[in-house]
């Protein structure tokens, strides 16, 4: 599904390397987690994969089902099936959440050569998906993420994921700012989407999210590289001992 | 003692008026027109150095002949306000077209052509025609409005006695590439009356329009206009409104394209507890023709507990220029005034500019007045968020443009009219994307 080879990235504004040779492969239907201390490059990886401005790829490659991701515009990556659940979902005053969701869904359908979904079908679909995420009519009516609590914003991200049905989902610290109940709700939403044809890359600081979304593989990232890869137990090890042991053993 | 008027202003006027005579056939109107001409001769035409014309060059408005303007091809698009049940009155190049218009009959309202009203011995319009315009000449001169009062032959005089059965829609078609339109409407809403006035279309290659509105006690006037999309058209328009006790005045203007547009709105809050909302949305692209759009607003609070609100939004690209001059004047004794003014521009590139001059002048001590003027680029974070969800960049930009204009459009009270305006903007943006 997702293949990252020797990826090197620096900031556009200053000559500062952030990713220094990331290698990662997420097979179809797999859930991989990336953990790591602050500043290790986890969020940068998610931004570079989704095509945000401000980064320069100096070496390496990233592909989705064989298609070169780095050569595509952000909207093309989305249409190809990539989805980033933002750590800080953006507030867009003046754009209604429903309008946003419908525009996004139909833009992707158009890009894939499918017909646009009718207003009635769309409404039915959104209502159904929103219900399981406990997103009420008011949240759908309000401007995108405006006045949403931290938990509401994250639920809205998962709603988008459920509607757009991407094949590769990147979750960037989706647990940040969530209380226990919200975390369960969000995790249930993600787990409901787990499927043989859909892969996940879950970026998190803490092991607790991984109790809910159980990964197949856990990677530890530090200083712009993946320094260790293991099973779900690796997350528990981090939880107990912190990153210090792993960092010193791989130094 | 009056200051001497600069010679170039007088020269510009005599050049402009050469070969023009005041309209004939008027009775009471003849006197009004002569007086307007005398006032005009004492002012001259605006000069580029005039403070009030600092951001907008009056040269092409002053010129004896208009610059030619090609007639816009709508490509079979549904007419503006077409879905709304309304009385249609058509003007072509500023001239009333009886055949294209509905009969001038509507319950709750009397409509006459200016020409007929001006030729009557006695007419209510006498107390209004040029009267509000004259009052609006102080403290700032508005020569084009005086010129209009003096020379306009075309226009309507409308008296609203109850709730108008339907909105009145003035449709301004543009057919001649060098037409010079001069239109003057007078509207009087009797106490408790209610009218929605819709205006759409470019009118002429160059338009000079005046609309005088007297809103009686407890009456409500709703005004929504779109100014046509002809790229080279020019317009100088004035609205003069006088508001009675507990009356409502709401005016919204949509401007897309146009080489030069200056919309002046002069509102006098005369009766206590009146409400005035003046809003505008402008979208300009300097790529095909220059785009220069000027909103000049002057609201005078001269009564207790009145609320005035100005909301102006402009989206500018490819060297387009937006101007906002807005003033709130609170007279002594106009206590509990609530005055609000917002002017914002969205600059889609570095070639475009927005010039704003918000002003408050307050002579009462128990008032709440505020103004805010901002100029900014598209929100990159929002743009990336939309694109990351698969919305292509041009479409995402347009979504943010519409969101930016939404505040101004929200000032339109009638839901169907607001929907027409929003839907149209969406369609125009889509058409532009190709």
TrEMBL record, chain A:
<dbReference type="InterPro" id="IPR017871">
    <property type="entry name" value="ABC_transporter-like_CS"/>
</dbReference>
<dbReference type="InterPro" id="IPR003439">
    <property type="entry name" value="ABC_transporter-like_ATP-bd"/>
</dbReference>
<dbReference type="GO" id="GO:0005524">
    <property type="term" value="F:ATP binding"/>
</dbReference>
<feature type="domain" description="ABC transporter">
    <location>
        <begin position="2"/>
        <end position="248"/>
    </location>
</feature>
<dbReference type="InterPro" id="IPR003593">
    <property type="entry name" value="AAA+_ATPase"/>
</dbReference>
<dbReference type="Pfam" id="PF00005">
    <property type="entry name" value="ABC_tran"/>
</dbReference>
<dbReference type="InterPro" id="IPR027417">
    <property type="entry name" value="P-loop_NTPase"/>
</dbReference>
<dbReference type="InterPro" id="IPR010230">
    <property type="entry name" value="FeS-cluster_ATPase_SufC"/>
</dbReference>
<keyword id="KW-0547">Nucleotide-binding</keyword>
<protein>
    <submittedName>
        <fullName>ABC transporter ATP-binding protein</fullName>
    </submittedName>
</protein>
<keyword id="KW-0067">ATP-binding</keyword>
<comment type="similarity">
    <text>Belongs to the ABC transporter superfamily. Ycf16 family.</text>
</comment>
Automatic annotation (TrEMBL), chain B:
<feature type="domain" description="SUF system FeS cluster assembly SufBD core">
    <location>
        <begin position="183"/>
        <end position="404"/>
    </location>
</feature>
<dbReference type="InterPro" id="IPR000825">
    <property type="entry name" value="SUF_FeS_clus_asmbl_SufBD_core"/>
</dbReference>
<dbReference type="Pfam" id="PF01458">
    <property type="entry name" value="SUFBD_core"/>
</dbReference>
<dbReference type="InterPro" id="IPR055346">
    <property type="entry name" value="Fe-S_cluster_assembly_SufBD"/>
</dbReference>
<protein>
    <submittedName>
        <fullName>Fe-S cluster assembly protein SufD</fullName>
    </submittedName>
</protein>
<dbReference type="InterPro" id="IPR037284">
    <property type="entry name" value="SUF_FeS_clus_asmbl_SufBD_sf"/>
</dbReference>
């Amino acid at each position: 599904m997702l293949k990252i080879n020797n990826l090197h990235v620096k900031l556009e504004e200053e000559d500062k390397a952030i990713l220094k040779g990331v290698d990662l492969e997420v097979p179809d239907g797999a859930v991989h987690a990336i953990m790591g201390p602050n500043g290790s490059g986890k969020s940068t990886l998610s931004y570079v994969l989704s095509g945000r401005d401000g980064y320069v790829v100096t070496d390496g490659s990233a592909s989705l089902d064989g298609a070169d991701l780095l050569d595509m515009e952000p909207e093309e990556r989305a249409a190809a099936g990539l989805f980033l659940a933002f750590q800080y979902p953006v507030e867009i005053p003046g754009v209604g959440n429903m309008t946003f969701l419908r525009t996004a869904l139909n833009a992707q359908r158009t890009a894939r050569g499918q017909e646009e979904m009718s207003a009635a079908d769309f409404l039915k679909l959104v209502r159904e998906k929103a219900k399981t995420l406990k997103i009420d009519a008011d949240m759908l009516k309000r401007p995108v993420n405006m006045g949403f609590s931290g938990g509401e914003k994250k639920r809205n991200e998962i709603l988008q994921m459920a509607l757009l049905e991407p094949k590769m989902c990147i979750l960037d610290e989706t647990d940040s700012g969530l209380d226990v109940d919200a975390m369960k709700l969000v995790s249930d939403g993600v787990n409901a989407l787990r499927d043989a044809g859909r892969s996940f890359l879950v970026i998190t600081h803490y092991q607790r999210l991984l109790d809910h979304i159980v990964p197949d593989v856990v990677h530890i990232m530090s200083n712009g590289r993946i320094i260790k890869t293991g099973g779900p137990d690796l997350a528990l090890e981090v939880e107990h001992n912190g990153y210090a042991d792993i960092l010193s053993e791989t130094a | 003692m009056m200051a001497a008027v600069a010679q170039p202003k007088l020269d510009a006027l005599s050049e402009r008026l050469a070969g023009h005579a005041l309209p004939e056939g008027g009775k009471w109107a003849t006197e009004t027109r002569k007086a307007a001409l005398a006032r005009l001769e004492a002012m001259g035409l605006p000069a580029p150095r005039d403070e009030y014309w600092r951001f907008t060059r009056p040269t092409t408005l002053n010129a004896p002949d208009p610059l030619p303007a090609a007639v816009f091809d709508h490509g079979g698009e549904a007419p503006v306000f077409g879905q709304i049940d309304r009385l249609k009155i058509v003007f072509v190049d500023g001239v009333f077209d009886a055949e294209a218009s509905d009969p001038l009959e509507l319950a709750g309202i009397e409509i006459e052509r200016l020409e007929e009203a001006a030729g009557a011995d006695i007419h209510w319009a006498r107390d209004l025609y040029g009267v509000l315009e004259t009052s609006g000449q102080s403290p700032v001169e508005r020569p084009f409005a005086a010129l209009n009062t003096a020379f306009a032959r075309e226009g309507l005089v409308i008296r609203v006695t109850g709730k108008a059965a339907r909105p009145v829609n003035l449709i301004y078609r543009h057919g001649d590439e060098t037409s010079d339109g001069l239109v003057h409407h007078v509207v009087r809403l009797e106490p408790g009356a209610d009218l929605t006035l819709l205006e759409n279309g470019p009118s002429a290659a160059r338009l000079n329009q005046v609309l005088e509105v007297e809103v009686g006690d407890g009456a409500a006037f709703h005004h929504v206009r779109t100014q046509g999309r002809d790229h080279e058209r020019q317009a100088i328009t004035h609205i003069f409104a006088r508001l009675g006790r507990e009356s409502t005045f709401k005016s919204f203007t949509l401007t897309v394209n146009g080489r030069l547009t200056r919309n002046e709105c002069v509102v006098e809050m005369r009766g206590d507890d009146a409400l005035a909302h003046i809003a505008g949305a402008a979208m300009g692209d300097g790529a095909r023709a220059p785009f220069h759009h000027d909103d000049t607003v002057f609201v005078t609070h001269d009564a207790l507990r009145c609320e005035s609100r100005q909301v102006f939004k402009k989206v500018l690209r490819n060297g387009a220029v937006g101007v906002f001059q807005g003033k709130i004047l609170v007279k002594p004794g106009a206590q509990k005034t609530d005055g609000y003014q917002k002017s914002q521009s969205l600059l889609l590139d570095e070639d475009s500019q927005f010039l704003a001059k918000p002003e408050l002048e307050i002579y009462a001590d128990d008032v709440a007045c505020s103004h805010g003027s901002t100029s900014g680029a598209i929100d990159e974070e929002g743009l990336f968020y939309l694109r990351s969800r698969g919305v292509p960049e041009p479409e995402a930009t347009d979504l943010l443009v519409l969101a930016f204009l939404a505040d101004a459009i929200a000032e339109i009270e009638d839901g169907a009219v607001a929907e027409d305006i929003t839907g149209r903007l969406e369609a125009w943006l889509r058409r532009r994307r190709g």
